Amino acid sequence: NPLGPIRPNRVPTTDISWKASQEFIEKLNEKTSGGYRLPTEAEWEYACRAGTTTAFSFGSTFDKNLFNGDTNIPRQVGSYKSNAFGLYDMHGNVWEWCNDLYGPYSIGSVEDPAGALNGTNRVLRGSSCQHDKNLLRSASRNNLFFAATPEMLYYTGFRLVRTVDAKTVIAPTIPSPNLTVMPTTSNLLVSPFTEAKAKEVQKELAKSFQKEVVEKVNLGNGVSLDMVLIPAGKFMMGSRMQELERQQNENQHLVTISKPFFLSKFEVSQDQWQMVMGNNPSFLKNPKHPCSNVSWEDCQEFIKKLNASTKGGYRLPTEAEWEFACKSGTDTDYYFGETLIMSNANYLATTVGTLKPVGSYKPNAFGLYDMHGNVAEFCNDWLASYSNQPVIDPQGPSSGLNRVIRGGSFNYPMYNVRSSRRYPILPTYKNYDIGIRLAKTI
Description:
It contains 6 helices and 19 strands. About 15% of the residues lie in helices and about 20% in strands. The protein is an alpha+beta fold. The strands form 5 sheets. The chain has a 5-stranded antiparallel β-sheet with strand order 8-9-12-19-13. Strands 4-3-2-5 form a 4-stranded mixed β-sheet, with helices on one face. Strands 7-10-11-15 form a 4-stranded mixed β-sheet, with helices on one face. A hairpin with a 2-residue loop joins strand 8 and strand 9.
């Protein structure tokens, strides 16, 4: 071996499916300050090329002294010269997963592309020690089923990306928590409760506030925003030990929501975003589909403009508010019960493969739609471990690296759209299956 003896712990991990890489990333983010993910295909190629326009990042000529290709032997990472960015082994050694679903490129210029909107195969880049120069080019693409079996994964590994944290955004005002005094209200809903009880308390509460259970706000041009009144309540936040794919950061604890609030009946739709912001960032345009491809910071700009043009009070829900509203008196994996079927929600097992119009499925006991699937929804909280003690109106820590998204999307498997499932996400990150649901302080 002209490169010296191979140390097994320095050879790239291989035979890894895209799904397995996600499990690695999730555990890595739990053990660290987070923010790790797979690169998009565009990020990968930009980093590989490192300013070049030639077939390879080192020029147009294939040189076996510069890449590990056509050898069938994985080498230690960093065995060859790096590119201009200081990245090693972007050509050859092992195939590297990208986050994107595989599909044809867009025609014309595009900003921050995130791949196809639907499909089952994910993109691989860089080729491996098994292949010749044609597949080792900077622009060469490959694809495999996201949950490919080991026999399909010869010399397949991955490289990590971490998004740089951006400017700090001032969070909207949320009612302050009281960690010592329990609220006293005759309308406190204690879980579990029935749909009939939920609707009874909603009506009583609306009458006491001289409001409607569903408040409709006119945004103009026939576009309205429907906000559902959610009573104060007490419930077990987090997941039960028997839940499928339960995560370590879902420990159950007693939470009291001491004040009623409004939550939007539907995910914010593209026509609602258009009316407030004057643009539609979503990839697949449909006015009644959820608005997507927005970051947590984009949502703050949306809320700022919405509050300026209305009576105000809009914000993102806290994670506790979101989960209480989603569970709506249930203590099962989903508000439909212990499992989902394809007629319950838009998630990966369905044949839809993309977004559906808001309100396409049956609502929960509070009258909220699409709390499972369609688009993942931002919460206001910075991600942190839960308290093990009872808590009132938790808001998350005052600072952090990642915000929280809830509910999963059309691109998530069933167990990842559970009521208790939590995901970390950088405030600047956006994707075609991430959107927003609004809360409003009464």
